[in-house]
Amino acid sequence: MLPGQQQEPPAAAANKSNRKDPPLIQCADLILPWLTPRELANISSTCETLSQISKSITLRRTLDASRFLEDHPIPFLNPNNQHPYAYFLYTPSQLLPSQSPLRQPWGSQLDRDSLGRHRGSSACKLNEPGEVLRGCDSGPATPHRGTGDSGKGVGGCDCDCEGCEEGGTGWEFLGVEEMGIMTECGPGCGCGLECSNRLSQRGVSVKLNIVRDGKKGWGLFADQMICQGQFICEYAGELLTSEEARKQQQIYDELASGGQFSSALLVVREHLPSGKACLRINIDATKTGNVARFINHSCDGGNLATVLVRHTGSLLPHLCFFASRNIKEGEELTFSYGDIRVRSKGLQCFCGSSCCFGTLPSENT
Ligand SMILES: C[S@@+](CC[C@H](N)C(=O)[O-])C[C@H]1O[C@@H](n2cnc3c(N)ncnc32)[C@H](O)[C@@H]1O
């Protein structure tokens, strides 16, 4: 049971006593979820009612980082309670910066009712870059849903592409430092999200939580037993050009030098057999991302394998995490951020593995 889960939310208590409040106060529970933690703190200091509503919003934010966009709530667990949650905007999949919302409601009483249980229902969901937030008002986001009675394909769809007939291609794990590669059905296929060859596009289905550590900050943990090969999540965030990534990295490095700041900009290079990089993808989950932004580094490679998943008919691959071995409930999910350390005074590594290098990997972006 999560802290405070059985208590009456302060907003409910506040609502009871609020019936005669001015309309602005009555609307506060609709407006305040759009605010950042700093804005919430400022508004809390103006009156007791707004303070109570802010507290209930904070509580609801701690209960689900995913805003009901994934199958299960992904709570923040923080024993010392000084940092109840990390603030960021949520996207279940990668998107272009121009598609990234400026604000997003989080912690509203209405979230569960209005967004649905998870993104497979009537939730707003994101798809390929250029096709954002489909399904907000129009029900399930499966534009090519099959009839299921044609006898073709799997999972009840009528797509006849090779991937569907094979019922998923699986992934090939190439080793800790090498990336697996996998192809799924995508916009170029006739099938919908229910197709069994679109596993990673249905979002996070394993139970996870986000735990605060005094040295590493937040980390992503398994809240159930996870079997080797199971899909965990995509690394979702804003897709940057390499020039944008370099500029952002400089800004993040400056902020990190002041302490209390964690960036989540990941540079993925796909290599040719010759060893030359042939594709570079920059995914920045610092402002907008999903729970993968909380995955910490481990020098021993951790328990996650990174796999580049291509969707048929889509140009850019998606970086996804799969369990590289069986993972016990309560274990932290980690992977290796790389093996290059260009900065002499890199950030100290607290992975705790026997082969710990002492500093976190760092590359020139
Ligand atoms: C992608 S974020 C991971 C989530 C982060 N811990 C947070 O609180 O948001 C990467 C940052 O986490 C921290 N981190 C990740 N792995 C670490 C490790 N093994 N030791 C120390 N800090 C780590 C570093 O600050 C790094 O820049």
TrEMBL record:
Q: Set out the biological process GO terms recorded for this chain's protein.
A: methylation
What range(s) does the Post-SET domain occupy?
345-361
Disordered, as annotated region = 1-20, 135-154
Please tell me whether the keyword Metal-binding is annotated for this protein: yes
Q: Which UniProt keywords apply?
A: Chromosome, Metal-binding, Methyltransferase, S-adenosyl-L-methionine, Transferase, Zinc
Locate the compositionally biased regions of type Low complexity.
1-14
Q: Where in the cell is it found?
A: Chromosome
SET domain mapped to chain residues: 206-338
Name the Gene Ontology molecular function terms of this record: metal ion binding; methyltransferase activity
The record's GO CC annotations read:
chromosome
Q: Give the SUPFAM superfamilies listed for this entry.
A: SET domain
Q: Does the keyword Ligase apply?
A: no
Checking InterPro entries in the record gives:
H3K9_Histone-Lys_N-MTase, Post-SET_dom, SET_dom, SET_dom_sf
Source species, domain of life: Eukaryota
Q: What is the official name of this protein in its record?
A: SET domain-containing protein
Species source reads: Salix brachista
